[in-house]
Amino acid sequence: FGSSPALGSKRAGHSRSPRSPLSFATMDSNAPKLAKVEKVLGRTGSRGGVIQVRVQFMYETSPELAGRSLIRNVKGPIREGDILALLETEREARHLR
Length: 97
Prior knowledge:
Blueprint: H1 5-12, H2 21-27, E1 33-44, E2 50-57, E3 69-75, E4 83-86
Antiparallel strand pairs: 1-2, 1-4, 2-3
């Protein structure tokens, strides 16, 4: 039980270096894209538990999307100026009626 040299040598040979969050976001295409809430458009959902907002993508995490804006549905407290981390950037919410 006390002598397992193979296990100890594997752990000692572990040489993967941790990446910083900034380099991780720029290298990984699946990384969340940051978007700033420009305007709160209103509440939606059967009980008003979802808030519809217009967001604009930030340059720092997605230069290819920078300046583009979308309408998204957000659950939970939100206000203008908040920053969302969006995992999916293609879908846009339907407009409120």
